[in-house]
Amino acid sequence: MAQLKILxxxxxxxxxxxxxxxxxxxxxxxxxxxxNMFTGPIPDWFNQRSYRYELDLSYxxxxxxxxxxxxxxxxxxxxxxxxxKPVECLSACSExxxxxxxxxxxxxxxxxxxxxxxxxxxGGAAKYAFKxxxxxxxxxxxxxxxxxxLDNYIAQNKSMLRMDNSVLYxxxxxTPLSLTYHVPCLxxxxxxxxxxxxxxxxxxxxxxxxxxxxIFDVYIQDIVVLKDFDxxxxxxxxxxxxxxxxxxxxxxxxxxxxxxxxxxxxxxSPKKGIYGPLxxxxxxxxxxxxxxxxxxKRFIVAGAVVLPLFLIIIxxxxxxxxxxxxxxxxxxxxxxxxxxxxxxFTFRQIKAATNDFDPVNxxxxxxxxxxxxxxxxxxxxxxxxxxSAKSKQGNREFVNEIGMISALQHPNLVRxxxxxxxxxxxxxxxxxxENNSLAHVLFGTKExxxxxxxxxxxxxxxxxxGTGICIIWLLNLQGRCIQLWCCSIGNCLWDxxxxx
Length: 500
Fold this sequence. Notes:
Blueprint: E1 6-8, E2 15-16, E3 30-32, E4 37-38, H1 45-48, E5 54-56, E6 72-73, E7 99-104, E8 109-111, E9 114-119, E10 126-129, E11 136-140, E12 154-156, E13 171-174, E14 178-183, E15 189-198, E16 216-220, E17 223-229, H2 231-235, E18 241-250, E19 255-260, E20 278-279, E21 281-286, H3 293-322, E22 343-344, H4 347-353, E23 362-365, E24 369-375, E25 381-387, H5 395-407, E26 416-422, E27 425-431, H6 438-443, H7 446-449, H8 455-462, H9 467-475
Parallel strand pairs: 1-3, 2-4, 3-5, 5-6, 7-9, 22-26
Antiparallel strand pairs: 7-21, 8-9, 10-11, 11-14, 12-13, 13-20, 14-19, 15-18, 15-21, 16-17, 16-19, 23-24, 24-25, 25-27, 26-27
């Protein structure tokens, strides 16, 4: 084993794991393990071998990846366990494609409006050309008893070809065992595939070159489309063209075309090593019409312009509907000029102060609406009176209350800090009275009623230092007509010093 240079165990359905070291295979230069059932991780010594070693691990069930390189064929090598990829070493698709055209084994060529991409990269016994984005090739097979040469994997015609589009048939991709074209980045759907063949190696003269008969199978999407295929027989002679059409369905964005030699045909004629699959060109065209790129770009540009405008219109409409935009401009005429009479608060300030009108902060409810306790950003405690939609008090009453209270100044009148007018939101911001109302003290819970009101305090409430003098003051204002209603103990508020 120490002197072993070539090891070929392909197509034997072997399973299990590979050894973790290669101490007994120090002289090994070529190893072909394609089409087996090996599992487990790919040993590190595969990564440690240089580029001059040919190693073929394609079509196995390994559960780990290896470093990608041209002479290590990893095509469909990891199809088992938690680590599973359809095809290894591929980069992400930059765009979806609807067609692919390949001049197999030859340079780039233009036929009419169709450009055939070059496929003239040298082949190999374990070659995996994965660096292209649009399509990749996997080559398996060693030409036995023939001096190693990369040129063996590209056939070249030596005579003059008289068929149409001869540039596609001057060269051909050749392999002794298996040749796979993998086309990713396709849009899912049906595709018409044209496989171009022309026998340019065998001859039909009286020499021994006419004795060769390469026979192989062709698979598309793992379906046999050509069985025991003989190019000369199908085309009606050498240097003649045969094009096979087939419709394939792409469901996972990828197409696979595989040519496989199954051991049939000649292997020694016209000379050693000349056998196996051969193909001249490949056409892949979608059966559905691809979108017009120019039109698509126009749609993208239009969408990029229209969509933001549409979103802006929706946003502005929503803000207008909620009243954030029409709050100051569409308010009724009765509300204009209130900012000259009192301070103005924003609705955002009020929401922040009352914790979004948290029910916990609700102090009470009257004919005007609900009253909430709040705390401004500077720590000032406030009482917020919110006009209810069900309230019978309208804008005029709202204006009157602001105008009257802002004009009246008395020690026993609650101070008005300001108001908020945004959209349908009408709010009054008052000085907060710490100890609630007189009714709260007299008729509240037993614990609150336990608070004794001395006669001196009661006298202060009703007498010249309290509510009474305030009412008299209001009734005797010169030049003003003040109507007092609902002068109940519920509207007599106490501050923190228990002053009315």
